[in-house]
Amino acid sequence: MISGYRAFANVSRLRQQVPTLSVVIPYYRGASVIADAVRSVLEQTMQPSEIVICDDGSPDDLEAALGPLRSAVKIVRQRNGGIGAAMNAATGACSGDFVVQLDQDDAFLPRRLELIAATVAERPDVDIVATDALIERGEEVITTMEAVNPFPQSDQRMAILHKCVFLWPAVRRSLLLSVGGYDESLPVMQDWDCFVRLVLGGGVTAFIHEPLYRWRMTPGSRSSRDRVANIQAQVQMTAKTLGEASLDARERTAVEALLAARSLTLAREQARHAVETHAADARRRSLQLVTGKGFDLATRAKASIAVLSPRAADRFMARRRERADPGLGALAQRGFHLPQ
Length: 340
Description:
Elements: E1 21-27, H1 34-42, E2 50-56, H2 62-66, E3 74-78, H3 83-92, E4 98-101, E5 107-108, H4 112-122, E6 128-137, E7 140-144, H5 145-148, H6 156-162, E8 170-172, H7 173-178, H8 190-200, E9 205-217, H9 227-241, H10 249-276, H11 282-291, H12 297-308, H13 310-323, H14 326-332
Parallel strand pairs: 1-2, 1-4, 2-3, 6-9
Antiparallel strand pairs: 4-8, 5-9, 6-7, 6-8
């Protein structure tokens, strides 16, 4: 894999065999944001060969939301199957050499496609091209992807097992199809699971050290939703990874340790959620943390409070929730190192 590869800045340096890029956008209840996403593609310094939107059974009117931009996109429709199914459907409808994902509530910065194409034209062995990204909350830029999640300079196979080292890449379409695309059984974390299979399958990765994507962290965005579901998906994808034949002994040991650690995290989060929602099984789940193996003393102490008084524990956690940043919390769920 290539580490730290910088794309050339000028499109004039592209070779004659410029790769074709298809931008794909999975869509569900995004009427207020989809036009901005599409407009950011149309304003690129290099245009894609196509923009494909998969309407994942959304109950709103996608065509009305697009307005005059409707003629610039190809729409694929399906019954609601989740983001993995939407990405697979959009990928299947594409014709480009590379598939470039754009989430419906995010946007490209103007030179993103130009620099991706320049990278692939200069290095035709590359299968995956990722870029840095701005992380925004409202209209404020709070950090960048590289600031919280530096691209690994070596051992990317091991790195991607521990955290999602890139997001929204351009992926060679033939390779994406060969690894089976996105796992439609995962309600979330389909991208990370897919990237693990791409990297373990030998995909060559390049990273552009320039923020060319706008990740808009909003309370309703897919990346800031149910924490329990996110961690459940992590456990599921980690268990799946153990079945990868390409893992060497060191990697397999690491995945086994990750599965154990993520399973403990899931148990903690399920207990926390039960306390917060005043669920009937709140005491039982908290007691499992007190008596179970592998939990640290701090976890056992907090769980003991919840066993004695779930409502007292909820009041304590409510004060912590008031101070929490939901956007950065979503980053943590992907294994990113957050600024202190």
